[in-house]
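Quick one - first record:
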Amino acid sequence: HHRNSIQQLELPQRKAALIVPAFETLHYRLTFPKSKAELLSMLDMGSLYTFRYHVWPKGHAPTDYAKWRTATVPYRVAWQPDFEPYVVVRRDCPKYDQRFVGFGWNKVSHIMELDAQEYELLVLPNAFMIHMPHAPSFDISKFRLSAGYRGCLQTLREEFHQDLSRRYGAAALKYLTAERSL
């Protein structure tokens, strides 16, 4: 079912990143919803949330969950600062930037690069994933506890922005101005 709807998008002929809307549960045991309808009723009952709703809503807000609820066809969304959706892309898409190992900015920088290369950001209407609770990773703990780690990440972000400006010229300015205004 998914395969057919994805094949209809004719991805080999176009540059697109397919966004899989992400949800999360705070329960360690969950009966995985078998359909979008079932997922929506779990969302309405409060046993599921949109991903990172409590901590970092900006990361997934552009997915436009309100629109997704009733969507039956893929829809385009615009890049916004800190957008870090889970995406399905062709293997020949730009690679992750290897500076961002550990916690922080790997997905954000990747989506920025896809957007800079004019990939369409397309939300899939019938796909979804659910994040299960787990212990914090070693790296997020370091990020939270160490000012040095956060400082390094900031330096890498600035370097990454400079590289974008070199590669994409004026088109990359929107990423810098978005950063500055945060």
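second record:
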Amino acid sequence: SSQLPDGQVLPLPSVILGELGKDPQNPTVCFYGHVDVQPAKKEDGWNTDPYTLTEINGVHLFIRNLYGRGATDNKGPVLAWINAVETFRALELAMPVNFKFVIEGMEEAGSLGLEKLLEEENQSFFTDVDYIVISDNLWLSNNKPALTYGSRGNACFFVEVM
């Protein structure tokens, strides 16, 4: 919970913890994402209502652009991981990893309550996690995505794409 300046206490949104797969032969990858957004108004420069996801055809026949608050930060990336799991299941392919998900709704306000939850779950939910993927990153331009491979306080890796 969070206390307001007037003393009123508001409950924080729940953090969603999910998992799929327990194969001891597979590594366990934990994916983090958030679904909250910063405030927006159409007058801020939006061509569409920022809180209504709007699909607009792109310049190519098969490209569609999605416009809406949080489509890239961070609802789209969260949904991409869920769609990846859905695709493996639909194709009846073996999962290459065990999946764990941490999806929160307070990142834009400093992830209130997340640290406490992580400490509480450290000896249970997170004990078998081998890797963590934070999919809350940006694109360098409309055609150039960014691959975040390290951040302060975490282990960093060099990735070469050939």
